[in-house]
Amino acid sequence: MHGGRLHRVTAFATLPTGGNPAGVWVGDAFPSDTEMQQIAADVGYSETAFVVPATGLHRRVRYFSPEAEVSFCGHATIASGVVLGNTEGDGQYVFHTAVGAVPVAVGLADGMREAALTSVTPRHEPASDALLTSVLAALGWRRDEVDEAVPPARIYAGAWHLVIATRTRETLAHLAYDFATLKQLMITDGLTTLQLIWRDPDGAIHSRNPFPVGGVVEDPATGASAAALGGYLRDIGLVRAPAHLVIRQGEDMGRPSRILVEVPTAGGIVVRGTAVSVETR
Hints:
Strand order of the largest sheet: 1-2-3-4-6-7-8-17
Order of helices and strands: EEHEEEHEEEEHEEHHEEEHEEE
Radius of gyration: 18 Å
């Protein structure tokens, strides 16, 4: 296919029935933008990564959702790292993306191949009251359901996300939003996904991530927003770095995902996970 091979892999999972599937296209040179968009649409997953050589263990990578190119995608990066480990060998790869260089360490852990990306330096900014009011209306959530201990904010580690924390697991479990309205709000504000979270008393963070701008109702595992969240929680003092976080996502979709986040005292956030093939042929 266009001089490359397409792999279908699910990231942040140990079984093909879990995690977030991604297409990983590996070839000698990028297809045209039109061809990459068509491949991503045909694959139908929330993201497809296109990986071509640079020098040594460096790779150039672009990411496409079924509807548009995306600046950066965490789960497709993890999937790509595992594919490269399986086909070309483990090592310290560097992905050159639209948002900058992203180191990706690939190796075996407990008998499974995993990849660990280090994000670009995260940042955040306040969410306007108008944006929050409009998004909550599209979600059908009340303002008093928001956990203000995690102030709603626009967060970034390669792509922009809006984080909203809920007071209860029950609120998070209810996700039946107005797709067209939320999509337009997110396009206008330059958002890739919503990062809707509930902090479990046991320390885990439960997350759901609407992704209508990519033509996808919900993402079962979102590495880019996990990195952005880790940076945000560090920057506002809700976690004391260095710290380790576990994000549980996809459970309400029947595709359980486990995202491991390492928060250093400064700089990029490390997002780690396994990935397994979902090839049907």
